[in-house]
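Hello Y.,

Per our agreement to keep a running log of every chain we model this quarter, I'm adding this entry. I've kept the format consistent with earlier entries: sequence first, then predicted structure.
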Amino acid sequence: MSLCPPGWLKTPMGNSYAGQLRTTRFEEVLHNSIEASLRSNIVVPRPIFSQLYLEAEQPLAAHNNSRAENNDEDEEDGSESNSPPILYQMKPPPEGCCTTDGFCQAGRDLRLSSLASDPLDVLPGFMLVGLKSPSLPDSLLVCAVDHRFLPDERGHNALLGFSGNCMGCGEKGFRYFTDFANHINLKLSTQPKKQKHLKYHLHRNNQGVLVKGAAICWRGHDGRIRQIGPRLLEGHVTSDEQSSNLLLLQPSHTPANYTASHTNGLPQIADTPHPLTNGQNAIPPIPQPAMNHSGPGRSTTTGTQTNVGPPKKRHKGWSPELASNVVSENTVKMSPSSSTLSSSTAHSSTTNGARLDAATPMSSSQRSSTTLSPSGLSVAVPDQLLRTCGLQPVIFKGHGPLPRLTGNVSEVLVSSLLQSCYLSSQTLPRVYQHYGPSPIQPLSTEMQILLTVYYLVQLGPDQVPLIEDLEQIFMRSWRESHLSEIRQNQQPQTPGSQGRHYGIETPPTLPGLPQHLSLPYQQPLTPSQLPWLAQLAASSCGVGVVVFGEHVGSLAQGLQLMFCKLLEGGFQNTNYVVVIVTASGQETQSCVVVTGKHQCRALAESMFSPSEGLREINHQLSSGETQELIQFCNSLGQDGDMDSLLDSATLDSNEPSPLSSSQESTDDKSVKKTRSPKDSHSPKQRVLATKETCTEYSVEWREVRPIQLAVARKLLSHVCAIADSSTQNLDLVSFDRVNFLILVPPSEVTFQQTVLHLWSSGVLQELGSLDQECASQRDAERFVVKMDQSAQVQIDSLIQEAHSNSYTLYILIHDHAHWDISSASYCNSESGLGLVDQLLNSRRIRDAPNILILHVTSFPFALQTQFTRISPYNEIHWPSSFSNDVDLYHERTRYFGVSELLDSTRSGGSLPLMRYDSSFESMAASLEERFPKLHSAVIRTTVLIHHYCIALMAVSGRLSGSHNLHKHSSVETLGIVQSLLSAAQQCPTRHGHMVLLRIPSLALAAWAHRRLSRVRRQLGLEEKFEIILGNPGQPLNIGQSFVDQIKIWLKVQEADWVPRTYLELEALPCILILSGAEPLGESLPRSLKYCDLRVISCSYLQRTTLEQELGLAAYLLKAESRSPHNPGPGSDLLESDAEKLSSTDNEEEEAQDNGKNSPPSSNLPVQSSPDIGAKATPSTQNNISPKAPKSTKASTPSPSRAQTQLPAQSTSQAFLYPQPSFHHLSQSQSQTYAQAQQVPSQNHPVSQINFQSYFHQVSHPQLQPPLLPAQSRRHPSKSTSSGSLSPRASSPHLNCSWARGVSRPPSVLLPRSLYDIITANDGSGLPRCTSFLPHMSVAWVSSFRPLLSKMMTCTEQSLYYRQWTVPRPYHMDSSNRTEGRSDNFHPRRLLLSGPPQVGKTGAYLHFLGILSRMLIRLMEVDIYNEEEINLNAREDGVQYSPSNVLWPNPEIMKTLSFDYTVHDPKYDDISFVYCPGYKPVSDGNTVHQEDVCLRRRTTRIKLSKYAAFNTYHHCEHCHLYLGFNPRYQIYESSLHVFTFTHLRLGEEIQLYFIIPKSKEHYFSFNQPGGQVEGLRLPLSTDRSPDSIKSPIFTPTTGRHEHGLFNLYHAMDGVSHLHILVVKEYEMAVYKKYWPNHILLVMPAIFNAAGIGAAHFLIKELSYHNLELERSRRLEGGAPAVDVWPFVILADDSCVMWNAVDLNVHTGPVEHAVSLKQVLQHMEACPDLSHYGLCGMRKWSSRVLTAPNQREPFSRGHLHDFLLLNVDQSQNVQYDQNRFTCHDVDFTLRLHSAGLLVCRFNNFSVMKKQIAIGGYRTFIIKTKMTDVPTSVGPSQYICAPDSKHLFLATPAQLLLEKYLQHTSHKLFPLSTKNYEHPVLSVDCYINLGPEVTVCFVSSRPHSVNICTTGLLFSGLLLCFADTFVTPSFLKNFTFLKGATLCVISEDRSSLRQTVGRLELEEEWRFRLSDEFQTANAKEDRPLFFLTGKHI
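Predicted structure for the entry above:
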C-alpha cells in the first residue's frame, strides 16, 4: 500500500530541485497523509515528513575530502539569485611582489602546515581563522580576523565588513576583504566574500600545535544552513521492551532495547506493530525488518530549512555523502561548566503544600531559560482540582520560563527534571567543543521537543515516563547525527577516557524512538514546522498525547487551556499534554503536563525522598485516612465480611483500628498474651511426638569455604602491596599483632549476626595477643559496633589505643559500606546519618599510620566516584567460582544470584523464579484509582495483607465454605500460604521454610504483623508457623515454643538462649516481615523459599536500591557433583561480584535455569504444592501430560538413573509441562504443573589450604561477571521426576521440605513495573537497571557518557563509575578534593565488593586471622638451631671458673687446654683437627658439602626488640639511621682514598672509604674536607654507657638487600662505628641501599677473592690505623699504649644476641639482650688486653643442657662474631688467598703463636638463614662460556702444559675444592684413619671429612701438640716459607707409603722447595705427579707435586 498522497511527483535525477516541494501545498500533503493513515490497518501510521520534499537521488559512491571540499565551494559559487555569476577581475599585484599561492605579497608563508608550530602574535580581540584558497584545495591559509566580524555559533551577531591582519608579514589594518584577498594572493574569478572563504576557526591542541577547528557558521548570505551528514544507516524495528518506567530523581543513563529505522529527520515508524500502543498490552513480537528503508543505491534524506522554502537552485554534486563537514543545528552552545551541574537535581521541598523542585545550579548560559516569567504572566490553578479530576497534575518545565502559578497550587506539582535533561543534553563535553575540524553541536530546541513528543507517544497507558529513556534518546540522536566526528574524536581520547570501553559509544537501540530520528538530519527543524510535526506525531496514539501549539501564544495561555479542558473532562483518556510556543522573534518554549492518573501518582510519589515518603505514610496511618480502605478490603461482597468470617472461627473478635499505629487496644494485648502457646503445648510434646528425627538437618554458616579463603588471600595480597610500595604508607614489619573493630549498620540483627560469625570463626582465639581472652559470645560484642550515636565512644577509644600502641595494626572494617555515605556537615545528629564521615574520615584516623580501613559492600558504586578516597588498585572483587567451565574451588555450596533469577524469566518451559502477580497488580491498580489521596504503599500493603489473610482462611479449612474465598486472593498468595502450612507436616521434626514479606514502612509492617497475628490466632494456627516482625532497631521476638523447637534442632544447652539472627531461624516455618527503608545487611537462612517484594517502592530506581532488594533472594545452594562442563549458574549478574559481566554471547549454547515453584491452584492447593507433590507415588509422578512435548518425556530418567548420574544443574527445578503464560494462570492450568528437583549425589570435599605458604601463595582467580544475565556456557539440565528427588531414595525422611529446599533457590515476587524494568535489557545487552544512576548520592558527570559494556570486568566497571560519576554535595566524598592533585586516595583504605549473601563476612574474618599470622611470620626469622658437633671430648671433671663469674681470668685461662676440635655445625664437612686423646664418634659418616646447607636445621624465632635488620625494615625510629627514606633528606657522602704499605705484600694497598657527612667525625683528616688520615680510636680508659669503643667491620658480598646491617635496634640506639667491607664492583649498589653507612671498598684485585682477603685487609688496616693513632697520640703528649686496640669482625647474618642467666631454682635461662650490652660487657673485661681473640658461641636450643657447657669461658675455635686484638695479633695474619676454613686456620695459628683465645659461653649469637649471597656461594664456570657448568672436582686440576678445559675460577678456590673432594684418593692411608693424620705445616686446609689433619707451626717458640710416637700418613706443605727446614721435618715420623703434597705458586718455586727441603731423600717423585690448577697462564695457576714416602 502506497502512502504517497496525490500530487507527489518523482522526477529523474537532475530535473528537480533536491528537497524542493513540487506542486502540493504543505497543508494539503499533511491532510492527505493523515487521511491515508486513518484508512490504514496498522496501529501506528507511517510518518510522511519525507513526502513533503523530494528525495535527493545521488549515488552512494564515497568521495575523498578534497572532492567534498571542492563540491562545497562549487555549491556556494555565484550570487544568491539565479542570475549568472558576476565576472571579477582582481587588482594586479605591485611589481616585485610575491605571487606564489599560499604566500602573501611580502613572500611570507601563510599555510597552516607551515605555521602550525610557530608562535603567532595575535592582537586582542582577533581570532585565528583558516581561509580556503581555490588554488590550494588541500591547504588552509592562516589569518587573523576581528571577532566582531565573525558570527557566533548560531550564525548571528556578525558585523558587516571586515577587519583582518596578515599572519605572514604582520601587516595590519585591512578594512576590506577584497584588499586582503589581493594581499594574500587569493586568485579568484568572482568577487571575494568573507562568507565564502573564511571557513574554519583555528586553535591549538594539547601539544600546542595549531589545528583546524569548528567551521564558521555563516548564515544569511543564502538564507539557509546546509546540514550534511554521513550516509544513512539501515536498521530493524524491534519491540521487546515493555517495562513500566518510573521517573527517577536524577536523569541517568538508561537506554532500552529498541531499534528503529532512520529515514527523513521526522518520525517514521515501521509497519511492525508495537507491543505498547494505544493502551494495549501485547506480547512482544519477533523483531521484523522495517518496511520503509531506502532502496539500494539511494539515500532517503530530509531536511528542513531556516526559511520554509526550498533551495534557490540545485547545486551540482549536492548529496548527504559528499560533504566532510557537518554544520550544527542552530542551537546555543552551552558552557562546559554546566555539564556536571545539569544532571544534578537537588532535593525537592514542600512550599505551601505544593511540591516544587528546588532550583538546580546552572551556568550563566542556562539561566536565561529557567528564569521566572514576568510578573504579569500567571496561571490560576482551579479549586477542587483533585476532587473534581481525581488526579494531581504534574507540570514538567521545558524550554523557557514557566508562568507563575497562583490559586490552588497545593494540588499541582512542578518538576524541573525535564528541563535538567534538556540542559544536560545541550551541554557538550569539552572534548567535542575544542577538538576536531568539524563542528559538533548539540540538539536544537525544536528537535528536543519533537523527540519528547515521540517518546510520550510510544509509552503505554500504564507506563510512566522515565527521564533516563528520554535522555538516551537525545544522546543517540546526537551521536548518530555526528557519527563521523565522534569517531574521529575518539582516536585521541583524553587520559581519563582511554580504554576500549570509555569512549563515547553509539548504542544500537533507543526506547520508543523511530530510528530515523536518531540519524543525521539533513536540515534542521524550524519553529514554524514544530507544532505541525508534533501534532502529526501525537495523532498516531489518538488522544493519549495532546499537543497545544498551533494557536497558543504563550505557556500561560496553554496551561490555562489545559486546566479548563481538564475540569471539563476533556482529558479522561489523555496522559500527556505538550504545550509548545513558537512565536516569531522569540525562542521556542515548551512544557509537558502529565494528566494520566497512574502517571501522576507515580511521579508525585517519586518526588518524595525516601524519608519523606515514609513520613507521609506514617501521617496517613496515624490520621485515620485509611479506614475507608480497610473497610473496603474487608468486604468480600456476596461471600460476606472477612471479620465476620473470622468471628465465626473464634470468640475473640475485638481488634482496634488496624492501621492506627498510635494506639493499641486490649485485643492487641490479647494477641501478645496468646502469642506463645507455651501453656498448652510443651516443646517435647510438639517436637518429640514421634521417635523419628530428621537426619537431613544441618547448619553450615560456621564453615569457611574455599572461595572465602581465596578472597582472604587477595585481601592480604593487597595489604602487602601497600606495604611493599615506595610510599612507605604501611610498615608491616613494625607491627607484632592485630586488633580490629567491625562497624555495622544500626540493625540489631546485623549486629548479632556479625557477632555470631566472629565468635564461630575462631578469629578471637587465634588473635591471642588481645587484651583478654573471650570466654563467651557476649565478650565478642566489644569488637562489633553499631553505627549509631554510641559508636563515637568506641571509635575514640580505638584511636587513643592506636596512638599509644604503635606496634599494633588496627583494622577498621566498615561492613555494608554503602549504607551511610552522607556528609557529616549536611546531616543533623537526630538523623543518625553522617557518622561514617565523621568518624572514619576524621584526620585522627586518616593520619594514624597503624590504622587500616576496609570497606565491605555488595554495592560499591557510590564509593567509586571522581572524588573517591579509595584507589582503584585497592579494590578487591569477589571472584567467580568458574573459569572456562572449570570449577576453581570445588565448593559444597553454589551461589545463586540475580543472574540466575533473570535466567528463569527467559526459560520458556518453566515457571520463572522471579515473576509478578497479575491478580494482585489488578486489584491494587483499581484501588489506587478509587483512593487517589492515599499513598500507593499503603494501598498495596493493605491489599497484600488482605490476600494473605484470605489465603490463611481458605487454606486452614477452619471456615465453612472456604472454597469461595479463593477468588478473593491471588493464586501466588494461595500457593505461598499453602506451602507454608503444609511444609512442616511432612517432616517428623516439623522443619519448614521461611516466607519473607518485605514492607519498608515500619508502621505498615507493624500493622501487618498485628493483622496477620490476629488472623492466625483466630484460625488456631499458632502452632503451625511463627510471624516475626523484623524491625532493624529491635531484637528478634520469637514465641517460646518456637524457641524451644530451635534449641532442640541446634542442640543448644543454655537455658536462657534465644535466637538473635535470622540465620538461627533455619528450618523454622515462619513469615518474616522485614521492615526498614532498606535492608541493612541481614543474612537470611537457607530455608527461605519465597521472597515477597510486591510492596517495595517503585519510585527510587537507583541501581543500588534495586540490587539490594533483589539481593535478599540471593542464596547459597547445596551444590551437586557436576562435570567441569556443567558448572551451573555462577554469580555473574547484577551484583558486583565477578570480573566478567558475561562470559559468552552465544546464547544458542546456553541453557537457562529452570524455575522453582509453580503457584498451587486455588482448588487443589495440596496437590499442587511442590512439597506435597513430592509425596505422590512414582506412578502418579511419572504420568506425563499428553500436551507435553516428546523431548520432555524422553528426558525424564528413571529413579535409579537419577541417583547415579551427575546432574548438570544443582538448584533449579525443571517443570515437566511448558506453560503459555505464567502471568495469567487459570486454575486448570496451575494444576498441570509437575515439578522435579535434583539433589546432590555426592559433594566435592573442601580444598585443603596450605597455611605454611600463605604469604607467598596468594590466589588470583579469574573473575567472572557481576552485572548481567548470566551468559556462562551451561548444558540444559535434564528434567527428573519427583520420584528421583534424592540420592537417598530409600531414606524415610525424603519428604522433609527443608532438606529438599536447600537445593532450590527462593521464588521472588516483584511489582509489575519493577519486573518489567529488571527483565528488560538495554542496548548493550545488560539489564536496564545497570544503566540507572548507581546511587542517589551521586550524579552523572555528563549525559554524553557511554553505556556500560557487556564485557566489562569489575575493575573496568569501577573505572567507568570513577570517570562518569561525581558525588553530590551531601556525599561524604564531595569534600575529598585537593588542589593540584589528580587524586586524593587514602593510602590505607581498601574496598571489598561481592554479591549479597555470598560470604564476605567470613572472608574478611579469615583475612584477619591470616594477617595476624603473617605479622607473626614477618616478626620471625629462620635461625640456625644446630647442636655443636664433635662433643665427645675428654672430660676431666674439673670446674676451672665459677659459673657466675663475669669475666675470664687470664691465669686460669692459660691452664685450660686448647680445644683443637671444631664444633661449629657449619663445618660438618671438613677434616678433623687432630687432638691427642680425642676419638671421633663415628668414622663412617661421609658428609658432602652440597648437602650441608640443605639439611641444616633451623628454627623460627620471633625477632626481639634488639634484632638486626635488613633493608626492608624501615620503622620510624631508625629512619635517620638508615638515611634513605624518601620522607627524609638523603645523606651526602664523599669518597676518600686511604693508602698504606704492607710489609709482607711488599706493596702499597689502596683502599677507598665512602663516608657520609654525618659519620665524618669518626675519621681524622689532614684538613677539613681533605685526605683521610685514619680512624679515630678511643682510649682504653674511656668509659661511656652511650657508645661502643670497638669499630665493627662487616665483610659482605651479594647481600645489599638481605644483609643485616641495620644495627640501630641491636645497639639500642647508642653511638657506634659500623663499616661495611665491600668489593669494588658492588660499591654502587651498597651505597644505594645503605647511604648512611660507611663503606670500605677493597681494591679491584680482590673482586674475585674470598672471605680471607676481606679479613686480611680489615686486620692489616686496623693495625696500621692503630699505629697511626698512637703516633697522633704521642704527638699530642698522650701515652701510646692507651689506644683501644680491638676491632669487631661480624658476619652479615648475625641477627640477635642472647645472654644466660643462672637461676638457682630453674637452672640456666637464656634471654635476648642487645648487642650493646654484650659488647659493653666484653669491653669492660679488666684483663681484655691479655687476649688475642675473643668471641662467643653460636646459639642452639640444646646447648644449655649439654654437660660440657658448665664452663663460662673456654679456649677453642671462634667463628662469625670476633673481638680481635690487632695489637697482640700483629704477627699473625689472615691468609688473603683463602676461601674456606680461613677462621679455623687463623685460630690455629693464633693459638700456636701463644696468644690466648677466649670464648664467652654465657653469650650466644643467633645467625639468620640467608639463602642469597655470601662468601660461601661459589660458582665454578668455564673460561669459554662464562656460564655455570657442571664441572667435576677431578677437572679442577690438570697436568702442566696439557690441553685442558680452563676454568674462570680463582686458582686457590680450585685447589681448596679439589683437596676437599679428592683427598681420600690423594692420601689413601689417611682415609678414616684418625690415629695417623696428615701433617700440615703452618696452615690448615680442609682435606675432606674422611681425612684427619694435624696442624703444627714451624715458627720458633710456637705452641704445638706433642707428636712423639705419632705416625703420620701424609705431609702437606702449602707455600712453605723459610721457617720450614729439613731439620724441622726430621722431627716427624711417617708411615711407609705416606703421601707428600707440596703446593707452590709456580713450577720454579715448587722445584726450589723440593730441593731446599731435601725431600728427595725420603720421598719418591714421578714426573706424572706434578699438577696445576685448571687455570690459564694469565690467571696464575697454582702447582703442586705429590710423592710417596720411601
